[in-house]
Amino acid sequence: MRRLPPLFAGLLLLATACTTAPAPDPKAAEERWRPKPGLAWQWQLSGRLDPTVDVPVYDIDGFDHPASAVEDLHRRGRKVICYLSTGAWEDFRPDAAAFPKSVLGKGNGWKGERWLDIRRVDVLTPLMTKRLDMCRDKGFDAVEPDNMDGYRNSTGFPLTAADQLRYNRLIARLAHERGLSVGLKNDLDQIPQLLPDFDFAVNEQCAQYDECGRLVPFVTAGKAVFHVEYELEAREFCPQARELGLSSMQKRYELGVWRRAC
């Protein structure tokens, strides 16, 4: 989940056996994209997509863009990450009505969004499976599952660290079964446990909060860390980011086209 601007800051796995998820494909696992540290990237979640930024990696909204947009980026030599919210409900998504009210918690600070009860894997597994199927079918190379640190927030549910680990690993497994790479979004406290399950990391504002060193295990493991800052100028965080091997840039909160890379 994007950190809020200052204005806003003030059962179990048995259920998965009932889904229609395909069996793991060994060939897909071998061919899965594994981004290396230092790759430049563009993260655009609002506005008309600009496919001309000269970077090897794009991260775009999975619902908002058709397969043709992914194909166009591929023709331009880009790998493409599918942004999804897997830990929060969004009232503006086409599948919003499929989520029962019993799994909807408190708002997460963004209009139309509410935390999900990630303990309810019986309900969420088939819903997330369909979303990941969408990413695969549109031709994406990877997925960025957002809002994956609910246990650290006031969600309306008594979520524990164990609940979060179980759910995050479930999402990673579902992505891998579809040949998709998967990134760990924020959730710094659980990096030691989740590093083997995720192919890269996506982080917001680790420099502002003096947390970037906690992402080094990904770099040491040969896995990219895609990082943005919103309130710091590039000159303030880029020297450290380069030293640590992060793929860093300055963005605005709306995550439009504008970027200032390190």
Automatic annotation (TrEMBL):
<feature type="signal peptide">
    <location>
        <begin position="1"/>
        <end position="23"/>
    </location>
</feature>
<keyword id="KW-0732">Signal</keyword>
<feature type="domain" description="Glycoside-hydrolase family GH114 TIM-barrel">
    <location>
        <begin position="41"/>
        <end position="255"/>
    </location>
</feature>
<dbReference type="InterPro" id="IPR013785">
    <property type="entry name" value="Aldolase_TIM"/>
</dbReference>
<dbReference type="InterPro" id="IPR004352">
    <property type="entry name" value="GH114_TIM-barrel"/>
</dbReference>
<dbReference type="Pfam" id="PF03537">
    <property type="entry name" value="Glyco_hydro_114"/>
</dbReference>
<dbReference type="InterPro" id="IPR017853">
    <property type="entry name" value="GH"/>
</dbReference>
<protein>
    <submittedName>
        <fullName>Endo alpha-1,4 polygalactosaminidase</fullName>
    </submittedName>
</protein>
